């Protein structure tokens, strides 16, 4: 059994960040669960475009407020606590944050921890 | 892109419950994500023994208070908001809830939605 506390992991290299978001990886590939699990905080007033071509991701909003735009269709969905979105088609999207959002994120395949966002908004494949 | 709201899903057959817990399945096997994602609420004062012999499960505490006992070792871990546990060894465990807990749970392989807890605390394998 693995037990980890966000408030501790937050002070270690499990936290990755850029200037407008941070993500604490509570589970990574080497935990052997077959998915990774992250608590991600997006700063209010920021906007981010991601395109996980090599991963499925689900995101559940714990707190905060914003929206997600599906860039293939232009559809915008409001994000509030209790809303989940899942990128089942590796959907390219723009996340807009009104009030700081705390999100619970699952990735399959699991993130290894060494990925960086590339210019196209994706992570490289695990291989 | 799949978008679902806990507050809506809560009123549908995505919610399964017994008298002391309920679980709203926001993602199931047929969503094709390779994992399922559930928001589970455990009633304060209740105790549950589970043993997912055929699944890996991670659980992140959003709110509430309780503990988990690893029945193989007798070790008890406190559960507070921000604590995650992951049953990477299919660990048989007892969950004790002091104040109503809201938990974000991921299962691999994904739950299909038709499983019931068996007498031994497990779900049957997906096959």
Automatic annotation (TrEMBL), chains A, B:
Q: What protein does this entry describe?
A: L-ectoine synthase
Which CDD domains has this protein been placed in? cupin_EctC
Q: Name one GO biological process term.
A: ectoine biosynthetic process
The EC designation for this entry is 4.2.1.108
- What is the primary gene name for this protein? ectC
The organism's place on the tree of life at top rank: Bacteria
Question: Keywords on this record?
Answer: Lyase
Q: Does the keyword Ligase apply?
A: no
**Which reaction equation describes what this protein catalyses?**
(2S)-4-acetamido-2-aminobutanoate = L-ectoine + H2O
The record's listing under PANTHER family reads: L-ECTOINE SYNTHASE, PTHR39289
What GO annotations for molecular function exist for this entry?
ectoine synthase activity
Q: Which InterPro entries match?
A: Ectoine_synth, RmlC-like_jellyroll, RmlC_Cupin_sf
As for what it does, the entry says:
Catalyzes the circularization of gamma-N-acetyl-alpha,gamma-diaminobutyric acid (ADABA) to ectoine (1,4,5,6-tetrahydro-2-methyl-4-pyrimidine carboxylic acid), which is an excellent osmoprotectant.
The family classification in the record reads: Belongs to the ectoine synthase family.
* Listed Pfam families: Ectoine_synth
Q: In which pathway does it act?
A: Amine and polyamine biosynthesis; ectoine biosynthesis; L-ectoine from L-aspartate 4-semialdehyde: step 3/3
């Amino acid at each position: 059994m693995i037990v980890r506390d966000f408030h501790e992991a937050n002070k270690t290299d499990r936290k990755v960040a850029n200037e407008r978001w941070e993500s604490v990886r509570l589970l990574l590939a080497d935990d052997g669960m077959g998915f990774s699990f992250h608590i991600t905080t997006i700063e209010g007033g920021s906007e981010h475009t991601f395109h996980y071509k090599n991963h499925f991701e689900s995101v559940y909003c714990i707190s905060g407020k914003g929206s997600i735009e599906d860039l293939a269709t232009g559809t915008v969905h409001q994000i509030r606590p209790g809303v989940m979105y899942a990128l089942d088609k590796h959907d390219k999207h723009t996340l807009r944050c009104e009030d700081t959002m705390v999100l619970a994120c699952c990735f399959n395949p699991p993130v290894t921890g060494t990925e960086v966002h590339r210019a196209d908004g994706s992570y490289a494949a695990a291989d």
